[in-house]
């Protein structure tokens, strides 16, 4: 069975973009693949963060995974920092990562520009090496990636090939360096089209946890009236009818895409259903669809959060399973890189 790893950062409230772009797809993937879903808390400290909130946000994120339908009889759910091998492998990989590769990362350039010099820690630069460690430790076959993570996955692949080449032994080199000596070289799994959810207040920027205005996103745990209010007030336009793919109507495209993803319809179905509608007719439909989809998730979330022993158990079991795989890879890497066996 092919293996897949993926995770979300516990940096704020999980929103509709995280759900439609990542977590909802996991529910399908867990039926076909061996899956490991983790809460990437180590990544959450790459920018200034609130230490008092981190552990709470980590538990909440784990509960959201389960509430959305991640099934622990199929998938392993764990907290990244609970598997020590992530950080350890990162150090080993750092030694094989040319600094120029990291300087080229678009996300580093963008985030460091936004954060300002005093707030840019080394971890923001080396973030992709930790991400490579997250993936390579598990010998993952596929990694679901959105547009914004494609460059980081490419770096992971190059790093895997480089380590395989440098330390993979003579046989590996003779084979020409392709294949999977120390690390399997992972492939990207591109999510279904339309899975990039945009802000409710600006159809050209993505819906994001870190956007200052809460009005710009639907959080998975938003109560009904908040969802209704956000949709009522979201940005629209004054063109007649509703349509996909008109570059002058990014908000329209986004709201129709959300409706399509939430209702599980095809683009053609939604285009036909909504072409003659105005915002006053469409918005209540969208609100109801969102509330219908999110309400059961919220009910399950409350149930899970009320049984903290259960959540603890899930995370311990997940970390144990993950550690077994990760430690085997890590020991192999230490050996290949010439360290004295412990
Ligand atoms: N707007 C989005 N549309 C579709 N998918 C999205 N993802 C995030 N935003 C959207 C996907 O969610 C997964 C987890 O993301 P992350 O926690 O690593 O954070 P991120 O990608 O940096 O996005 P956020 O949630 O908006 O956080 P901030 O504001 O901190 O940047 C990933 O699979 C991502 O593609």
Tally of distinct domains: 2
Q: Looking at CATH, which topology of the largest domain would you report?
A: Rossmann fold
Biggest beta sheet attributes = 3 strands, parallel
Which CATH C-level class of the largest domain is it?
Alpha Beta
How many separate helices?
13
Contiguous low-pLDDT stretches (5 residues minimum) are none
Order of helices and strands: EHEHEHHHHEHHEHHHHH
What is the count of β-strands?
A: 5
CATH structural architecture of the largest domain: 3-Layer(aba) Sandwich
The share of residues in helices is: 40-55%
Radius of gyration: 21 Å
The share of residues in extended strands comes to 5-15%
Side by side, the strands of the main sheet go 1-2-3
- N/C terminus separation: 32 Å
* Mean pLDDT figure: 93
Counting helices, strands and paired strands, the structural category is mainly alpha
| Principal-axes shape call | globular
The unique ligands bound to this protein are:
adenosine-5'-tetraphosphate
CATH H-level superfamily of the largest domain:
HUPs
Topology summary:
Blueprint: E1 3-8, H1 16-32, E2 34-39, H2 51-68, E3 75-79, H3 85-94, H4 99-103, H5 106-115, H6 122-136, E4 142-144, H7 150-167, H8 169-174, E5 187-189, H9 224-233, H10 250-263, H11 267-274, H12 279-305, H13 308-336
Parallel strand pairs: 1-2, 2-3, 4-5
Helix pairs in contact: 2-12, 3-6, 3-13, 6-7, 9-12, 10-11, 10-12
The protein binds adenosine-5'-tetraphosphate (AQP).
The site of adenosine-5'-tetraphosphate (AQP) has 19 residues, from helix 1.
């Amino acid at each position: 069975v092919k293996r897949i790893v993926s995770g979300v950062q516990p940096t704020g409230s999980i929103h509709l973009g995280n759900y439609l772009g990542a977590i909802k797809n996991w529910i399908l993937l867990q039926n076909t693949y061996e899956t490991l879903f983790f809460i990437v808390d180590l990544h959450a400290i790459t920018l200034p963060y609130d230490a008092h909130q981190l552990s709470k946000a980590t538990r909440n994120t784990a509960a959201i995974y389960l509430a959305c339908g991640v099934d622990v009889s199929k998938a392993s759910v764990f907290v990244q920092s609970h598997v020590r091998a992530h950080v350890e492998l990162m150090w080993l990989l750092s030694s094989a990562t040319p600094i120029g590769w990291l300087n080229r990362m678009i996300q580093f350039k963008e985030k460091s520009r936004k954060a300002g010099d005093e707030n840019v820690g080394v971890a923001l630069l080396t973030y992709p090496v930790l991400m490579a460690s997250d993936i390579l430790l598990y010998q993952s076959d596929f990694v679901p990636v959105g547009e914004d993570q494609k460059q980081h996955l490419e770096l992971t692949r190059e790093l895997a090939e480089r380590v395989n080449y440098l330390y993979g032994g003579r046989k590996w080199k003779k084979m020409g360096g392709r294949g999977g000596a120390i690390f399997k070289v992972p492939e990207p799994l591109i999510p279904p089209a339309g899975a990039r959810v945009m802000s409710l207040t600006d159809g050209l920027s993505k819906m994001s946890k870190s956007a200052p205005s809460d009005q710009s996103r639907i959080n998975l745990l938003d109560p009904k009236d908040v969802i209704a209010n956000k949709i009522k007030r979201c940005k629209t336009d004054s063109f007649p009818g509703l349509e996909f793919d008109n570059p002058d109507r990014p908000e329209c495209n986004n709201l129709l895409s959300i409706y399509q993803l939430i209702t599980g319809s095809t683009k053609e179905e939604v285009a036909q259903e909504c072409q003659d509608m105005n915002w006053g007719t469409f918005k209540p439909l969208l609100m109801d669809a969102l509330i219908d989809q999110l309400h059961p998730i919220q009910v399950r979330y409350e149930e899970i959060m009320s049984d903290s022993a259960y959540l603890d158990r899930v995370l311990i079991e997940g970390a144990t399973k993950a550690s077994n795989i990760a430690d085997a890879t890590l020991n192999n890497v230490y050996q290949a890189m010439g360290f004295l066996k412990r």
